[in-house]
Amino acid sequence: MPVDTNLMTPRARALAAAIRTIREQSGVSGRELSRRLGMSHGTISHWETGRRVPTPEDVASFLTAAGVTGREKQRLIELARDASEPNWLTVGMPGIPQQLAGAVECERSASAIVEWAPLGLPGLLQTADYARALAVASGLPASEIEQRVTLRIARREALTKRNPVELIALIGEDALKDKIGTSGVMEDQLRHLLEFSERENVTIQVVKPRIGWHPGHAGPFVLYDFPDAPPVLHFEHFSSGAFVPDADDVLAYRQAISGIRKVALGADASIKLIKGLLKGKEQ
Predict the structure, then answer these.
(1) In terms of DSSP H, where are the helices of the chain?
(2) How is the chain split into domains, by residue range?
(3) CB neighbours (10 Å) of residue 141?
(4) Residue 231: which region, alpha, beta or left (left: phi > 0; alpha: psi -120 to 50)?
(5) To 5 degrees, how large is the angle CA 145–CA 149–CA 151?
(6) Which residues of 183-216 are buried (b: 16+ CB within 10 A; e: fewer)?
(7) 195-222 pLDDT, tens per residue?
(8) Which residues is 241 bridged to in the sheet?
(9) Which helix (H) or strand (E) holds 204?
(10) C-alpha–C-alpha distance, residues 8 and 4, integer Å
(11) Distance (Å) of CA 18 to CA 75, 96, 107, 227, 254
(12) Residue 42 carries which DSSP code?
């Protein structure tokens, strides 16, 4: 069945991920859930992959059959209600899990990703200890920290799977020098960057500070390209974020990427800089 690219929005991807996770965690097979709902097994399978977007009523029935109740049930029904909307603004702390789900599904499905990270390291390249230090510093409840760290590490599969995503990571030098966690955490993180830079699908370029204005001054962003859907921009902020597929915005940010790469160090020079920083930390 061909994919309807108009439905492959970040919300639809997040909903598909939630349906898949709930079905797996319910302990009930997809065929049994299909039987309870009186529909074909293929329908639920298509929901899980995002090839079809269920109606809010279908989601409500599915969640009841899977034993999901309360706020989580209401959240997913609301997500289904607006799943076809291309723009997605998540606001406030309750929206962060949805934003993470959308980002994870974009990473899983993307063919190419470009991330501009001026002050922190791209999520796909973070170590567990670095991610944990960030979570602790941001004041997350202890009950959520390990869940976030586990999710962060699982996201790395997008770079290591059989047909991995192509990642261009544009990183501000200050992000490499800032102390997140202990000195040991940062040493391990720098080694991790060097290790992943050896992969053919990963390009790391460092942007030095105080070089004058360039498009990166507007702030961090991520651009996802998909083989089966239009590209999407993701802007993540402290307690809110947005997914934007507007073609004019995408074109503007492609031009911004070109501008940032022009002022960035080349890949070889970037690796040399990281090795120098690591050598300095180890002394």
Answers:
(1) 10-26, 30-37, 41-49, 56-66, 70-81, 96-109, 128-137, 142-155, 157-160, 173-177, 183-197, 247-263, 267-282
(2) 1-85, 88-282
(3) 8
(4) beta
(5) 120
(6) eebbebbbebbeebbeeebbbbbbbeeeeeeebb
(7) 999 999 999 999 999 999 999 999 999 9
(8) 90, 236
(9) strand 202-207
(10) 7
(11) 11, 14, 15, 22, 30
(12) H
In CATH, the number for domain 1-85 is 1.10.260.40
Is the CATH number 3.30.870 carried by domain 88-282? Answer: yes
Question: What would you report as the CA-atom Rg of the chain, rounded to the nearest whole angstrom?
Answer: 20
3-state secondary structure at position 5? helix
Query: What is the rounded CA–CA span in Å between residue 53 and residue 46?
Result: 8
Type of residue found at 43 = T
What whole-number distance in Å separates Cα of residue 148 and Cα of residue 97? 10
β-sheet with 232-236: strand ranges across: 88-91, 240-244, 232-236, 221-225, 112-117, 166-172, 202-207
Residue 166 has a CB neighbour count (10 Å cut-off) of: 15
DSSP 208: -
Q: What is the pLDDT of residues 156-187, one digit of tens each?
A: 999 999 999 999 999 999 999 999 999 999 99
Q: Which residue type does 230 have?
A: P
Amino acid (one-letter) located at 180 = I
Size of the chain, expressed as the number of residues it contains: 283
Q: Which residues of the chain have pLDDT under 50?
A: 1-6, 91-96
- Tell me the one-letter amino acid at 121: L
CA distance 205 to 268: 8
